[in-house]
Batch of 4 targets.
Target 1
Amino acid sequence: MKRLLAVLALLFWAPLALALSPYFYGNKVAAGEIPAVLDQVGAKLTKAGFQVVGKHIPPGLPGYGVVVVTDDGLLAAVRKLGGANIVGAPIRIGVKADGTVSYMNLDYWERAYFRKRFPQVEKAVRATQAKLARALGSGRAFGGSVDKQDLSDYQYMFGMEGFDSDKNVVMERLSFDDAVKTIQENLARGVGKTSKVYEIIMPDKKMAVFGVALNDPKEGEGWWVKSVGDDNIAAMPYEIYVVNNKAAHLFGRFRIALGWPNVGMGAFMRIVEAPGVIRDTLTVVAGGAP
C-alpha cells in the first residue's frame, strides 16, 4: 500500500514539477520612497557582482519600481547565441514601496527567448539564477505557470504570435549603427512619450536592446499593467531590440502573455488595444510612422 501511495504521489506531482513560474519573491528590504527602495536593491545587486544598467519608476503605477541589471555570465551566453536572443540579456527586479522584492525566473524567461538553443546555455542561466537568489533571497515562485516544454514555442493561445512573429519588426534602417543611433536619439527626445531605461549594445555582434518607458498617461504601460496585475512588475519595462539593420519588438500578445501567464481572456480583452499601441509607439521610436 505504501508503494502504491508513493507511485500515486509521483504521478500527481510530476506535471506540477514540469511547470515554471515567471517570478520569485526575494527578501523584503526597508520600506520607503521608491527611489530609496531601488537604491537598496541596486546596492545588493552591485555587491553580488551584477551591473546596474537602469532604474524604472513606471508612470501611473505609484509605489512600484524596477531595477535592471546585467551579468557577465549571462551576457556571454547571449553573445554566443546572437540575433534576437539579445532580449534575454537584461535581468529585471521589481520593488514595491513596502519593501517587497521580486525578480525574474530566468529558467522561465530564457526558455521562451532562447527556445531550442536553451540547452546550449542552460548552465550559464542556472548560474546567474543562483547568483540572483544569493543576492536577493529565494522566496516562493508566483505569477502563474507554463509547462517547461511549452516555453520554447510559447503562444498564449493557438494561432497567436510567438517569439518569431512577423509582426515583431517595426523598422528597417540602412545599417546597425543607423538603427541604434535613431533609437538613442528618439528616446533622448522623448518621442512618442517615451524615455530610455537601459541599453545593452554588442556592436561586434550587431545586436542591441533598449528598455523603453512607455510614459503616455492614457496609453502607456500604467493603464494596461494595472489591468493584468501590477505585482508582476518585474515584467517591465518593455523593450525594443536591433539585429543587424532591423529594429523589432516582441508583439504584445506574446510579450504581455509571457509576463502574465495566469491572466484570463477577460482581462486581456480589457487591454485589447495595447499590443497595437505598443507597436505604434516603438515604430516611432525606431524612426518610422505608426
Target 2
Amino acid sequence: MNEVEWVRVLSSIVLQATPLMIAVCGETITERAGIVNLSLDGTMLLSAMIGFIAGLLTGSVWLGFLAAALIGGLFASILAFSTIRLRKDQFAVGFVLTLLGEELSAFLGQNYTRIPGESVRHWGIPILKDIPVIGPIFFDHDPVVYFAFVLVGLTWWWIFRTKPGLKLRSAGDRPETGFARGVNIQRLRYLYTIVGGALVGIAGAAYSLDIKLGWSEGHTRGLGWIALAIVIFGGWSPIRGALGALLFGASKALATVLQRRFPEVSVVAFNALPWVLMITVLTLVGSDVSERLILFAPRRFQSRLRHILRVRPPAALGKPFSPSSSGES
C-alpha cells in the first residue's frame, strides 16, 4: 500500500474505535465504583435502535444521541437499583438485561430495518486537518470522534487527578474506608452506574448514526462484550482502554485488507480475527502466562513489561456494600 492508502486505513481505525472508546470509558467509570454492568451488549443494541429511530423521526441526530443516552441510563439505573437496593446478583441482573435489550431492539426496530436516516455530518478541524499524515488520521472526522478522545482524557483526569475521582476509586477499592471518611458509597455507585450506562447508550447510537449507518437486527451484537474485555485489558484505565479499542479497530481493518488480498479465503475466517486477537490479549494480560513470557525479554525491559501486562481490578468490584454492616446506626 502507498502512503495515501495507509493514511486512509489508519483514519478508518480511529473511526471504528470511536464507539468502543466511549463505551469503555462508561464501563470503566462504573466498574471503578464497584459495579459490573454486564448489560452492555443489550444496552448498545437497544440504544443503537432507539437512537436511529429518534433521529429519523425528529430529524435531529443529536436528539437521537440524547434518546440513546437516556435508554443507557435507564438500563443502568435498573441494574443499580436491583443490585444496590435489592441486593440481587450483579452478574445475573446484567445478563438478563442484555437479553432483554437484544429482544426489545429486534421487536421494536423491525419496521425500521435497512432504511435511510439521519447521520452525523463530517467536520474536519480547520488547519489541523491539513497537517501531513496526522491531520487526516485524527482531525478530519466528525464531532463524535473528537468527543471520544476528549472523553478519554477527561475520564482519566477525573478518576486519577481529582478529589471526586478519589472518592470514586474508594467506592470500588475500599468502600468501608470511604464510608468511614464520610463518603456516601451507595449514592456514588448509583451515580456512576447511571453515568456509565448513559455513555454506553451514546456508544450504541454512534454506530447507527455515524459508523454503521441505519438499523438492522443485531446491528452491534458482540461489541458490548468486546468493550467489557477491553476494560479488563486496559487495567480499568481510560487511556489504556482507548488503546485497546484502537487495537480492536486495527484488527478489524487488518481483516478487511486481508479479505481484499485473499478473496479465495472464507470471509468467516477474517471476521473471526478480531475476536481471536482479543482472546489472546486477555490470556496474556494479568496472567501467569504473561509472567513466563516476560522472562524471555531482555532484563532492562522486564520491569516495564510487567507494568504494562499486570492489571489489578478494583478490590470490591462486584461485591455488595451495606452501610449498616460498616457501623451505620
Target 3
Amino acid sequence: MPSRTTALVTSVLRFTVVLACITVCGCAANRVAQYTYERRLLADADEKFDQKRYAEALKIYQELVSSPSYSQTEAAKQALFKIGYINIYYDNPKADPKASLDAFNSYRVRYADDKLIGEVNTYSKILVVLKSFEEQYDETTARVKRLQYKSAAATGSLDTLLESIQRCSTERDSLDLEKSALLKKISELEQTIVKMEKTR
C-alpha cells in the first residue's frame, strides 16, 4: 500500500499536470480566437496594398468599415485609416483626395482619442489646403476664360480692343504666377507626405 505522502504527492502532480494542460489549451484557443476573420481580411488587404493592387485593397478596407459585423472592430478602425491613406498614396494612379479627406474626417469623428489622430489631422490639413488651392486655380482660370471671351466678342474701336488685350495679358500673367505658386506648394506637400510615409 502506498504511503499517505506518496498519495498526496501523486495527487498534487496530477493536479499540476491537469492545470498545465488547461492553461496551454486555453492559451492556444485564445491565440486562435484573436486571429479573427476581420483580421484576416485586413491582412489580405494589406498584402494587396504591398503588391500595388490598390483597387482590390481599397475594396476590402471599405468592406471592413461598412459591414455591420466588423464596423466596431479594431480592424475596421485600421481599415478606415488606410482608406484615407491609400487615396493620397503617391504611387496610386487612382488616388482620390476627396475620398481621402472624407475618410480622415470620419476617422476624427469616430476615434477622436486614438494615437493616430495627430497624423490624421496633419493629412486632413494638407488636403484642405490642396482643395483650397485647386478652387482658387479653377476660379482664376474661369475668370481668364471669361475675359478672353469678352475680348473676342468685343467690337469697336482699336482702343477698346487694345484695352481688352492688356487686361487679358495681365490676368494671364497673374494666373501664371498663381499656377507657379500652387505647383511649388503641391510639390512641398507631396514631399512632406513622402517623408511622413518613410517615418511610419
Target 4
Amino acid sequence: MPAADVLPPEVVRAAVGDGDLLDVVAEPLGGGTGAATASVVRFRGRVLRGGEVVPFSLVRKTVRPVTTGRHAAAAVRPDHWAHWRREPLAYASGLLPAGPHLFSPRCFGAGEDVVHLEDVTGPAPSPVEAAAALARWQTPTHVGPPALPWLADHPLAQRLAVTDLDLTSAADARFGVLLQKAWTDRWTLLARLDDVPRVLTHGDLGLGNLVRTDRGIVAIDWATTGTAPVGADLALLVLSLERPAEADEPVAAYLAGTDPGLTPERVLLGYRVTALLTGISRMHWMLARGDAPPPGYVDLLTDLLDAIGDP
C-alpha cells in the first residue's frame, strides 16, 4: 500500500541520502513476537538522485507497553527485560555492537515508540561462528558494563521470580525427578551466579536472531538487551540449536574468544546454570503443548546438572 506519508523524510535520507522520493510500499511482517512489539513493517521504495533511481528497503518496528501476561506488572520498570521502550533507547544510545566481530542493524531513526532499521537478510551463521563473534564483542565488557537505568537487569532472575513448574506429571522417569529437583533448588543455583562477572547481553540470542551478511554477523531484536552473568547469551544460543546436545564446539569457540581477564570456570558456571534453568522451563512449555523436545535436549540438561553438581 502507498505509505509515503508514514515514512519520515529524514529516515529516507538517513537510509539512502538526498533525493526525490518516487514511491514506497509497506509490507507488514509476521515476525516480531516480543512482549512489547506492536508491529514490524518493511518499507520498499525508490529515490531519484542525480538522474539515477536508487532502491531502498528498511524496517520499522513499533513498540508499546506490556499490559497483559504474568510480566505486565513488573514490565513498567525500566530495568525489567520486557520494558517496552528499551529497543528505541538502545539504538539511540550507540551502545549496540558495530563490529568488527558482531554488528547490530544500522539505525536510521529512533523515537519514543518506534525505530527504523536496516533491512537485514541472509542465512544464519554457524553456531561456532556465532559463539566466537559473541565472545569477542561481549566479554571485554566485564570490566564495567554501563550503569544505564533501561538495561535489563539479570533477566533469568526476573523470569524465575514469576515462574513455577511441576515436571513430575509431564515428564517420564528418565528425567522428571532429577530435573524437578534442580528446579526446586533453582534459587540456590541462581545464587551461585552472584560471583560470576556481569557483561552486556543481547538477552534473546538464538540462531533465529543472527544473520550472516557481507559485513559480518548481525544480531537483530535488541529489545531485551541488558546485563547478565557471562555465559548467559551462550546458553540461549546453545538452547536454540536443532541438536542442543551438540554444544561442545560453540562452547569451546566462546571460551577461545573470551577476554583473558575472565576465567573459564566462571564463564562455564554462568553458561551452565542459565542453560539448565532456562532449558527446564522451555522443556516444560514444550511438554505442556504436547511437543517432544529436540533430539538431545534432555541429555544436555542432565549433563549440565552433572557438571554443575549439587546446589
